[in-house]
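Two entries, shown back to back:
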Amino acid sequence: DDDKMPPLQDWNIRDIVHQSTLSPSPDVLDNTAEIIVLHGYVTMFIVVFPLMPLLGVVSNFVELFVDKYNLQNTQRPMPTAA
């Protein structure tokens, strides 16, 4: 089974080259801020528009698929200290 996988160093180099060809990832803090603002709008406007929570859920699902696409097709986010 070990002869089927390439050596670990070759895989790392190929992954680094692949990651370097992808576009930079969007900022994680911006994505979090979008969700917080969305929940704020839902809370503020629920009295005026009772269907707002339903629109919030739909928006969350759309955001989920957009974030999934971004994570799969952009560079990995750079880890930073808190």
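entry 2 starts here
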Amino acid sequence: GLAPPPGLSAPPAITAQSAISRDVAAMGLADVAGPISATVSRATSIEVPLTPVEGKRIDAAAARAEYLRSLAQGKPALTLVVIGHVDAGKSTLMGHLLILLGDVTQRQQHKNESESRKAGKGSFAFAWVLDESEAERARGVTMDIASTSFETPGKRVQLLDAPGHRDFIPNMITGTAQADVAILVISAGKGEFEAGFDLGGQTREHALLARALGVNHVIVAINKMDVEGWAQERYDYIVSRLHPFLKGIGFKDQNLSYVPLSGYNGENLLEPYSIPWFNGGSLVNAIDALPPIAKDYEHASRFVVSDILKVGASAAVVQGTLLCGLLRAGDAVTLLPNGGPGTIRSIDTGASSSWLGPGASAAINVAGVDTAQIRIGSVFCDTFAPATVGIAIRAQLVVFETDTAILPGTKVVLHHHQLAQPSHIRKLVSMLDRTSGAVIKANPRCIPKNSAAIVEIKMDAPLCIEPFRACRDMGRVLLRAAGKTVAAGIVLDVLQG
């Protein structure tokens, strides 16, 4: 028989460690709360050619066997998000890479060049490959998640280009929650790296959010090296500042790589550029060197809605991402937190397959559900094993650098995949020792910054959410207040009142 290749086993069982060393470590924020190591498996798309069967759930064992047989037939797939401080050159970098890979037609390329020159923004031609809206082009910044796909010699990549401006952090969270790996783009320009990293920029917050959302692997693209004359001293300085920080928030040495490049000139993107002091290869080489990503295809399906494309009286077409499990035409699903049962009519992945694997995005046509109840953030679940719904959760959090302590009654916005749900801290259950995970104080009056705690959070409306131990992809939360990320953590329990 075929043995699963590395990274394709089911997520490991959660062992009986202390609460914080087990859960906060798995959440990936160990070293923010204390020196606790962590590994979190992530999902990506898989190819299982299955025949639709009306109203039946997928045979997980048969699907897994079919998947393993299909591995030799195609390239590994992953979802990659591009993050970093505003003006680091993310869209220019990835737009130019898409052109070099042949994924942009010559006609579209000429159109972008002509229109950007007419708008007095000739240097934005590459960025306009991904920044397509009038508002983004007028402001010169990415505002929403841009999504496309490309292939390298060794990978099939779903690309998500995230906004860097702090005003659009919620959109960045939405995109990063779908990603397996990240490219963190850094500007090497004098003062530009410092503005993003030291002076309240988004470099730190983006990296922290990516880790909190389960991203394990990061390629650090040190952009605009041409502006610095490809000076090794500048590259070494940036790496020396970034690496300890990235390790400190839970990234492992072996999961971090650094690539000097020029997005605008296209140097060291596709083919290795001649750099006397660097022999680590190009950006595409770094993408192809990423290891296989663990995929949770045995769990019951959870499909999160990101956009509503068409709604009828008894059917709808929605865009979204399958977090875990397998989904195919004919499957029975239930819409949560409200909406009732339905059936998948068809799945449009842009390919010929009628199935969907974990981590993959697609448009699905669903019949039978109460279409009036479909919202951004709604979840279509396996009818035979639906997710839980609650009005409150008990969560284990790591509190970041905050201006004020967290108190009972503190209002927050709870981010869970596509959903940003107004909520408040209902109860402070306990503070935890950052190293051992032991309870150091029950019922504290407040939770200070840079601490770990268990709290109860009451949402303004019921939410489809699950404990981390039951479903990792449905069990992570972020809390924001006053435009800042104040805490991140995992769900311990879903509460009904």
